[in-house]
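pls ignore typos typing on phone
zinc ion + seq
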Amino acid sequence: MSLLVTYRPEDAYTRAARRDRAWLAQRARAKEVQLGPVDAFTRDFVRADRHDTHVRRVFEAAKIQAVQNTADNVATLRPLAEQSDVEMADQLRQAGARQRRWRLRGFLWSESRLPRVRACGRHRAADAGVVALRRVGDSVGYAGLQTCGSPHSCPVCASKIGSVRREDILALMSAHTAEGGSAAFGAYTLAHTRTTPLNDAWDMLSVAWRAVQQNGTVRRVRSRLGHIGVIRVVEVTYGRHGWHPHIHPLHLFEGKVSDRDVRELYVAETTAWSAALKRKGWRDASLKGQRLRRVGGRSMGVDLANYISKVGYEMTHVAGKNSGKTVNHWSLLDAARRGDADALAAWHEWEEGSRGRRAITWSVGLRDRYALAPELSDDQVAGAVLGSDADDLAYIPDWGQVIASPVAGADLLEAARQGGYERLQQVADAWGITVLPANPYAPTDWKLPKRARAVLLA
Ligand SMILES: [Zn+2]
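k done
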């Protein structure tokens, strides 16, 4: 297959395009692809072996202006070229993030110490037959697989849970501001050393926060300010000084509050916070580490986006472990996957220390006040299956083929989302994965005939 890929000048300086070109050059040196005569933004190359996900990303990242040889490719690729840049960039980002999640979870299938994480997306659910790939509108997903529901230790479940939790907070905040309410948020942390075990630090965080909630002065100030409730998000980062856990409170007030009001609450809360730490024999956290500020007005949207990005579910970025700054636990996992034994040890401590912990807590009554639906558990969110049997697009009779290359699981979803069964079939072929079309004319309770199932599942 020979394809001419033309980068438009305005795409050429994007980081993705630079990476793609560097990647192609490297592959060319390794004689895996041949580069044809090129100008600054054009590459004409021939695949030597099977498709690589990255090659597909190259096609997708570039505006494809000409495709030689097969008419099929023109048909497949044209819809991409018709999308706007913004849409395309957005979808690419999402597809890339999904690949990362699947790659990391694939690593955990063998390296996690949590049995449910090792089984997540790998083993079939108890009552399921063949794994089905479903598509409902622009959403895609698998049916028939086990899920672990871990908001802390599974990149795939965490992403699902995180998007639901973020939407919840946004729904709450839009109802709250519509009523004329105001808000404040901040960060409370504790002094820790490199050897402080994560478990201890997290326990202390919970104890200190409870002390703040129960403190008489805090309660009085809150009630004077028309305090409605608080959402508590726990974020833990990792750096040279070990684990760095902190709480991000989001306070809601009935009416407007002033900076002075918030300052008063800050003093009351941090005083109670430090006292609790001292009682338990922890070093007093410096006041510098504690923050609380009013949010609202024009910057509300930005502030809020900032706040919910603290919800550590999402792999917003995976920084290098040794970059000098603190990193999130996904970065540790990524370093572990690349063979860093220290990072793997830290990841195991993370799994142990975060297990069963709540990442977000809403104060009682807050959801009812704004008539939000009852909160779904992490398991419920992660285990929710898209659509019904009627939405099955394809079956994957041998899931073991996906287990062998976890990223393929993400690629099949993206292919189905972009181009339905036809594109799915192409991508599955490239990965060497068998897919079967679901019968579009069958009644909704249609299943593979028993004998076929027996053969397929053998
Ligand atoms: Zn999971």
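The chain has 18 helices and twelve strands. Residues 155-313+359-383 form a domain with the Alpha-Beta Plaits fold (CATH 3.30.70). more later
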